[in-house]
Specification:
Blueprint: H1 13-28, H2 30-41, E1 48-52, H3 59-75, E2 79-83, H4 90-97, E3 105-110, H5 112-119, E4 130-146, H6 154-163, E5 167-171, H7 177-189, E6 193-197, H8 201-209, E7 215-219, H9 220-228, E8 232-237, E9 263-271, H10 276-290, H11 293-301, E10 304-306, H12 311-332
Parallel strand pairs: 1-2, 1-3, 5-6, 5-7
Antiparallel strand pairs: 3-9, 4-7, 4-8, 4-9, 4-10
Helix pairs in contact: 2-10, 3-10, 5-12, 7-12
């Protein structure tokens, strides 16, 4: 698109002709529609770079690599996974945000892409600097306690916490959904609990099994094996509905605390400014992959419930998350230590 003259200077005769032509195109609607449509028809024209904001071996990386072969097949170009980890996903997110907005670079992020910006200053704005492409899946947090604990229900936990202020709950770090879930629970129940951040969910779960922590709102993907092996007792899940993989475990909401609904989510985003037709092409392609019965079942076995939906749905969800998580962060005075 032709640039406008700078400052307040008068455009040249040639510049006037360009401006008149631009106005004519805008009036006909072709200036906005034609360039993105043309780029979408030829997309993708080269290999796609899929930036994963966490290191190899984690849930985010596993999900990305699980989908990679089908993405390459569907889009007709190699999809190359590139791990850019560090700073709770911020390094990879900045890499995505600074990429060319042509759809050939996008990435997988998790819910900390929102919560991190609410807790500390980040080098990106999740709503301004990123293009929502697809909300892939939600992973509930499971409220778990050691098998030796007398706590068996949410009511038991609330009563126990009121009699014993300062019950400890672990998390993979400040601002994770596991941390936010614990803070949200404490606020809703009117109890005081002590957050113990770890460098990863694995060490926190290990300490919980051994009784060094009182409870945890563990990410389902990492916590389910401990529940299935009988090492931890599942009390409730933080999702809006009961989890298909734990159908007999109630939600926190149905157990008397309706405001406690939170998931860790995984999603695809690109840099701001990707043409709408390309966003829709990516969204439709990704949806067609993850909604296949076999793929949906494989993700569910990991504790991830497929969401899919449109890019607009995801954009609306991100705005709602900023409001919801922001209220918890402010009320609980959560800050980076």
């Amino acid at each position: 698109m032709t640039a406008e003259p700078a400052g307040g200077g008068r455009p040249s005769t040639k510049g006037k002709h360009r401006m008149m032509r631009r106005r004519g195109l805008l009036g006909s609607g072709l200036a906005l529609a034609a360039p993105p449509l043309a780029s979408a028809q030829g997309f993708p024209s080269r290999p796609i770079r899929l930036v994963v904001t966490f290191p190899p071996g984690g849930t985010t990386d596993i999900l990305a690599r699980q989908l990679q072969p089908k993405m390459s097949e569907l889009f007709g170009q190699p999809v190359v996974v590139e791990n850019r980890s560090g700073a709770s996903g911020a390094i990879g997110t900045v890499e995505i945000a600074r990429s060319a907005p042509d759809g050939h670079t996008f990435g997988m992020v998790i819910s900390t892409v929102i919560s991190s910006t609410l807790i500390s200053r980040q080098p990106y704005d999740a709503l301004r600097d990123l293009t929502p492409i697809q909300l892939l899946a939600r992973v509930a947090d499971i409220l778990v306690v050691p098998m030796s604990s007398p706590i068996r229900t949410v009511s038991d936990l609330v009563e126990h916490a009121k009699r014993n202020p300062g019950l400890t709950y672990g998390s993979p770090g400040i601002g994770t959904s596991v941390h936010i879930a614990g803070a949200m629970f404490a606020l809703a129940a009117g109890v005081e609990m002590t957050h113990v951040p770890y460098r990863g969910g694995g060490p926190a779960l290990t300490d919980l099994v051994s009784g060094h922590l009182n409870l945890m709102f563990g990410n389902a993907s990492s916590t389910l094996p401990f529940v299935r092996d009988g090492q931890l007792r599942a009390i409730a899940v933080t999702s809006a509905q009961r989890a298909p993989y734990l159908p007999n475990v109630p939600t926190v909401a149905e157990s008397g605390l309706p405001g406690v609904v939170i998931d860790e989510w995984y999603a695809f985003v690109g840099p701001a400014g990707i043409p709408r037709p390309i966003v829709e092409r990516l969204n439709a392609g990704l949806n067609s992959i993850v909604t296949q019965p076999a793929e949906r079942a494989r993700l569910l076995d990991m504790g991830a419930e497929v969401v899919a939906g449109s890019a607009d749905d995801f954009a609306r969800f991100m705005r709602e998350e900023v409001d919801k998580i922001g209220r918890v962060v402010r009320a609980a005075d959560i800050r980076m230590e």
